[in-house]
Amino acid sequence: MTTGFATLRIEDEDGLRWIRFDRARKMNAFDEHQWAELGRALDEAAVAEGVRCIALGSTSGHFSSGYDLPAALAELEGGGPAEIRRHIGRGNAACWKAWHSTKPVIAAVEGYCLGGAFELAMACDFVLADRGASFGEPEARIAASAPFLISPWVMGIRHAKEVLLTGELMTAERAERIGLVNELCEPGRLGERVRAWSRKLQGFPAGIWAQNKMMVNRSYEIMGFSSAIAMGEDAFVELCCLSDPFKGELEQRVKRDGFASAIRWAQSRFE
Radius of gyration of the chain from Cα atoms? Predict the structure, then answer.
């Protein structure tokens, strides 16, 4: 086990490096510190000689519930566009590291995979999911948007609009049907299946595999993928700066009643 991280647990086994999110009390919701640590962990895995494959997972029952909203509100209070852009930049940087990694990156999803964590999983090369997992981009329900706008690139327009504009969650089975998941795993078998995929991927010459991945990624970038991600960042910043009664009420409820109560109030608008 590699140490030196407060919010992650790093484990190596047979050429596979596990980067496990380790904030169970927050359902692995990402704050600025965890995003920064994830970026560093991906950098270290990229240059580690004995590592041939990378898996992102969890030490608990949830991959991640997304961004840590209370922490984000506290960090951004009184901040302007530059501070907002700097805030989402940490998460987007981690997504780009998964996207550009020359080593295979597998998202091993159980429980919630929402918001920024959903975007991170979609930036990985492969997604394996426990049948009990849930996927979604609930940002629209709290007057925000996806800062790493990858959803339209990994699903058709109808499903992308459903995910991004309604905030509805979907089951792992449905996520597989619309092409978001490579393999559904029976309960208790997610780790076993990730290891099987890792063994298969390690059979390829590393440099040749990396070149093939680069060709696939560049085909998307030629079609405008990178520009779309930049546009998503701009839209997120603009939405954060817009004055809206609902946003103001939500922020006040988070401060007054706590995050869980505020989210229940926000969700009640859609029932």
Answer: 18
Check 37, 110, 119, 162 and give the catalytic one. 119
Rounded to whole angstroms, how far apart are CA atoms 80 and 258?
24
Gap between the Cα atoms of 53 and 104, Å rounded: 5
Give dist(CA 32, CA 87) in Å, integer. 7
- Tell me which of 137, 139, 176, 233 is the catalytic residue: 139
Q: What is the pTM of this model?
A: 0.95
Identify the three-state secondary structure at position 128.
Answer: strand
Is 119 annotated as catalytic? yes
Q: With pLDDT > 70 as the criterion, what percentage of the chain qualifies? A: 99
Known catalytic residue at 139: yes
CA distances from 180 to 119, 126, 152, 183, 264 (A): 11, 9, 11, 9, 27
Give 147-187 pLDDT, tens digit per residue. Answer: 999 999 999 999 999 999 999 999 999 999 999 999 999 99
Which pLDDT score is estimated for 156? 93
